[in-house]
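re: ur question from the group chat, yeah i did fold both. here u go
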Amino acid sequence: MSQTTKSPGDFLREELEARRWTQADLAKILDRPLPTINRILQGKHAVLPEMAIALGQAFGNEPQIWMQREYEYRLSLASLDTGDVRKRARLYELAPIKDMQRRGWIHKTDKIDGLETELKAFFGVESLDRDPTISASARKTDASNPFNAAQRAWAFRAKQLSQTLRVNEYSDAKLGVAIKKLRRLLGWPEQSRKVASILAECGIRFVVVEPLPHTRIDGVAFWLDSNSPVIAMSMRFDRIDNFWHVLGHEMSHIRHRDDPAVDADSVIDERPSSTGDEIEDRANREAAATWIDKSELESFIDGVGPLYSRDKINQFANSLRVHPGIIIGQLQGREELRFNAFRESLVKIRDTVTAEALTDGWGHEVGI
């Protein structure tokens, strides 16, 4: 709105001149103090509803006309810098500012230019006109939609951490060797601390980032370049079955070098048998088969189900040298067991994994 907008006083002056009335005449007609009329003419006094009605009666027009003139005039006087408002809104749409500042990912600043500089540095971009993108296949709750602001920030924090790691040169053959080594860890939760070093040996950077509020993401697989894969996990569900399933899922994306895409479905507190997405269904199938031979599991199901007991599950797990919680997780994923069955076997594993993996969150501070 231009500041040249006429005030109600300008219109009032035109009405007086057309009728050759003085301010005193109008004051008499309206039965209002002369100073009030004078202040309206100078634009120093607002036309309130009662005055709008009186002016409408005096000049034979509708009171709404006078209220509209008052509204347009006052709006034109507003000195708010709408450019800064738009820029600030863009930054807050792009990233969860307060949560990132709380985690120390960006510095606290009240200045919009400073905040913009912080976000450019965090995302590693020269402009924020477009949403920063990351080449990744992400396992998150609602993967049919693009990353939201919290998920994007989480993934970029994982990227920052991964760039500080030194690992061996990657090859698909080395990944196959790593999987064999990882399988030897499945029977003992405390052995999961070796995951990060085994992945580093095959050239995969592994990091753990505590999720931001409302992130709802379990893991992400991406490439720093054509030969530098990264797996990041949130471990928002602190359970042995969830950890190994998400890890296997992300390794599937690395193995197949999937195009950058957001996963179509993920774990909340269960694993659906089908996500409706071919790549994600494949990753889920391979995640399960990576740790437990499909034919052996199906043979156990045929021989025992649906009369599962703790002893039978433990015996089967011992024969495979796999923790019972991993067996239970897969049975639950196949809907062979209720999701509240044998929950005590789904032991916590986060503290063990993060003891040796590069971790941001849960008391682990990383200055980057």
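okk and heres the other one u asked abt
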Amino acid sequence: MATIAPPLLQRRQEPDDQQLLKLFWNRAGLKKELAKLRRENDRLIDQLRQQENASLRTQQRLEQLENLLADPLEAANAVVYYQLRGVWQQSRRRMVRFARELSERQQDREEQVLHQQFEQGRGAALAAIDSRIAETERRLRLVRTDLDAVELRLGQLRGFWNTFRRRALGDQRAAIQAALDGLEQQVARIQEERSLQAAESGAPFPGLSIEARRNINLAVIALAQQLLIHFSEGDVASLAREAAARSLADSSYGDAERCQTLARNIEAVASRVDAPDRMGTLIQRRAELLRQSARYRRESDTIPVAGSFATVPVVLPEPGQPQRMDARVLEVNVLVEEYWDIYGVLLG
């Protein structure tokens, strides 16, 4: 009985150890899940607090706006302020849309050119491979003709007195067969090379070229200048720039009557602005004029030096004619004064 008891105790102890091990791993897994749930709970609480703060700020702004609109003079000033900000934002959106359209069209053109160049290069490479295949197959046919001739000659040599001749022709046949096998392997390798070349795809589009981005940026600057000229009527452009930089509390446009007059003027000027596609000819001519004076610090730069465009000519010279010295200009640099947030639109 003494010899049987230890094995029985050992067999009983092994299941107990396994149960303890399972309980340990289950406890560790539960601790991980609990920590994960706590982190998720903290994240949701933080998100809720942020949402509550945002809602509180929105409510405060609404209350401020209600208090503002309760005063007729303050309400009139607020209308003008938001009209001017609308002019600024609308002009910026117009420029963003214009830059995007130009970029998409230019990318399509450059991708097409890149694809054509790739196809031409691949076609030339395939033509060279086909020429190698044709030359190798021509040599292959000649060697097969030689082999057929040797085998025909071997078949004609009968009798023991032709033993040495047959041996010599046998050696010659073996050499020709080896050359034939080498040529067949060479044809197979070249054909595999051709398959790989034919299956090769072009490199991904690397992005617009520096020259393309420069041209697009000049067109965007031309549009910014054209919008400046249009909104210079009634000084709307400079007022819109001030409204974009100031808060409503820091803005004042006079008494209620002046605010109403200013609001009508802003609405009238904004309603007459042309879309970029209708201003296409003017923008193209203005961009060409800008290109003549544009300077860049480095060869890799795509945004011209701001000092390149110190003034904005109101009337463009006719194609082929120099700019008149007495022509009317606006003493405004759209890059230096960052009209319509232009640097956020230009392509880097």
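fwiw on the second one: The CA atoms of residues 62 and 284 lie 45 Å apart. The mean pLDDT is 83. idk if thats what u expected
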